[in-house]
């Protein structure tokens, strides 16, 4: 009988070594369920450090199923769990940015706390998620976009899913998705619903090798750049974004968050189709704003205003709609 690994006390911040050993034991099934629950709750109650966040992500990266990506590929995603139930902004942004010529390795999942996650909405749009997952590396190389379904690339995380359900509250693993992209992207726009955590999260991301990225958090505790008000920005590398973004920075109007409230996958898919058809709306403005930031990170444009113009032209020319249709047909 194998003796379960003892996990360290969480009363004090963990060193790189002790954090690495702890998360390796958790993901490899070497610690008991009771010890894992105590450990994860302890981290949450004390508040995770950048070292602990980075080592948890590094342990996941070492166990994931990776894919190759073209140079300059980017990911645009959020940690989720902000409770605002907005339409799928980062999913639409991914299509617009890819259609503008930047390869997008979109890492995502089904809904956890919202009604429609990226995978749910893409499936409602007609994308065969199983086939899209199997062909992710090929579609990324050929048409510049892929959806990396988390469950396909992180088999180790499945082991602790029942434990996380038992805990029934946020743990460090709720922060992991954007830090463990299977394509090893070095450029990212990451939304986090906790403005106070943005600097810690950025420290972790930088230590994991990001070269050009931004961690963003709307003042409403929103995991994307807010169309309603200011958004905090923490930059990594020489990214030409301000420390604080408002819609006016991209020459866009502000709108209340209720104006981009989403629904079930069918509702969100219809809104995205209307967006790609050129419909004017607060949803379009939110997508233009976030796409503009991603295009700055990708070195495609020099500032948010130019990024919003490029994003609008990409939609209005039909390029983003054609990319979605090509992706559905391809996969």
UniProtKB/TrEMBL annotation:
Mg(2+) 1 binds at residues 90, 224. Its EC number is 2.4.2.18. It comes from the Bacteria. 5-phospho-alpha-D-ribose 1-diphosphate binds at residues 78, 81-82, 86, 88-91, 106-114, 118. Signal peptide: none annotated. GO terms for cellular component: cytosol. Anthranilate 1 binds at residues 78, 109. Residues 13-63 form the Glycosyl transferase family 3 N-terminal domain. Anthranilate 2 binds at residue 164. Residues 73-320 form the Glycosyl transferase family domain. Belongs to the anthranilate phosphoribosyltransferase family. In the C-terminal section; belongs to the anthranilate phosphoribosyltransferase family. Its cofactor is Mg(2+). Keywords: Amino-acid biosynthesis, Aromatic amino acid biosynthesis, Glycosyltransferase, Magnesium, Metal-binding, Transferase, Tryptophan biosynthesis. Mg(2+) 2 binds at residues 223-224. It comes from Sphingomonas desiccabilis. This is Anthranilate phosphoribosyltransferase. GO terms for molecular function: anthranilate phosphoribosyltransferase activity; magnesium ion binding. Catalyzes the transfer of the phosphoribosyl group of 5-phosphorylribose-1-pyrophosphate (PRPP) to anthranilate to yield N-(5'-phosphoribosyl)-anthranilate (PRA). Binds 2 magnesium ions per monomer. It holds the Pfam family Glycos_transf_3. One of its GO terms (biological process) is L-tryptophan biosynthetic process. The keyword Metal-binding applies. Pathway: Amino-acid biosynthesis; L-tryptophan biosynthesis; L-tryptophan from chorismate: step 2/5. Homodimer. It catalyses: N-(5-phospho-beta-D-ribosyl)anthranilate + diphosphate = 5-phospho-alpha-D-ribose 1-diphosphate + anthranilate.
């Amino acid at each position: 009988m194998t003796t379960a690994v003892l996990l360290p006390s969480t009363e004090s911040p963990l060193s790189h070594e002790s954090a690495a050993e702890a998360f390796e034991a958790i993901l490899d099934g070497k610690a008991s369920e009771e010890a894992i629950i105590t450990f994860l709750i302890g981290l949450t109650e004390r508040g995770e450090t950048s070292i602990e966040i980075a080592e948890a992500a590094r342990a996941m990266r070492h166990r994931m199923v990776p894919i190759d990506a073209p140079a300059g590929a980017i990911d645009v995603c959020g940690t989720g769990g902000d409770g605002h139930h907005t339409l799928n902004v980062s999913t639409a942004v991914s299509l617009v940015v890819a259609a503008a010529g930047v390869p997008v390795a979109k890492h995502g999942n089904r809904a956890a706390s919202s009604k429609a996650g990226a995978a749910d909405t893409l499936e409602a749009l007609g994308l065969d998620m199983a086939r899209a997952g199997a062909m992710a590396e090929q579609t990324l190389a050929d048409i510049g976009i892929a959806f990396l379904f988390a469950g396909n690339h992180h088999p180790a995380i499945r082991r602790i899913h029942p434990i996380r359900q038992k805990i029934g509250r946020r743990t460090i693993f709720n922060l992991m998705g954007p830090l463990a992209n299977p394509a090893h992207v070095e450029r990212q726009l990451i939304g986090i619903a906790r403005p106070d955590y943005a600097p810690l999260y950025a420290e972790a991301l930088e230590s994991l090798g990001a070269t050009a990225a931004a961690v963003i958090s709307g003042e409403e505790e929103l995991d994307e750049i807010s169309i309603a008000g200011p958004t905090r920005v923490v930059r990594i590398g020489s990214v030409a974004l301000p420390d604080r973004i408002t819609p006016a920075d991209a020459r866009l109007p502000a709108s209340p968050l209720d104006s981009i409230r989403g629904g079930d996958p069918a509702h969100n898919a219809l809104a995205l189709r209307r967006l790609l058809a050129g419909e004017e709306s607060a949803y379009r403005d939110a997508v233009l704003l976030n796409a503009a930031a991603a295009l700055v990170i990708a070195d495609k444009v020099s500032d948010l205003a130019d990024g919003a113009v490029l994003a609008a032209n990409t939609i209005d020319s039909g390029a983003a709609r054609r990319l979605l249709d090509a992706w559905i047909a391809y996969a």
